[in-house]
Structure formats: structure tokens, C-alpha cells
């Protein structure tokens, strides 16, 4: 039973991280990063968008997964 719970938590964590990475990518599309980069460097702007999406999505997803873990451990308080 413990292994099944661990597997479910892992699947949820992966799904949450992917969801937040997609949300971060969607949100970053409204930011004009091409202003910061030199003209004609489209590929570098796209790579930066992907990397920023991964970083922001991982941070937000990690926070959400930790919050879920902490809230599930509250039952041991009482």
C-alpha cells in the first residue's frame, strides 16, 4: 500500500510540474524578451523563453507539491 501511495504522489508531482511549466510559458509569452536581446537572435530568445518557463514552472510546481505534502502530514499533529 505504501508503494502505491508513493507512485500516486510521484505521478501527481510530475503532472503539477508540467502544468506549472505550461502556465509559466503561457505567461512569459506576454513579456517582450526580444527587447533585451540583439536583433536577429530569434533562436536565443526562444531558448531563453523555454529555460525561464522551466525555472519558473519548477519553482511554482515544487512549492505546490511541498504544500500538498505538508498538508497531508498535518494529520500527525493531532
TrEMBL record:
Keywords: Membrane, Transmembrane, Transmembrane helix
Keyword Transmembrane: yes
Pfam families referenced in this protein's UniProt entry, alphabetically: DUF1146
Transmembrane portions of the chain: 6-28, 49-70
InterPro entries attached to this UniProt entry: DUF1146
Entry protein name: DUF1146 domain-containing protein
Annotated organism of origin: Chryseomicrobium excrementi
Lineage: Bacteria, Bacillati, Bacillota, Bacilli, Bacillales
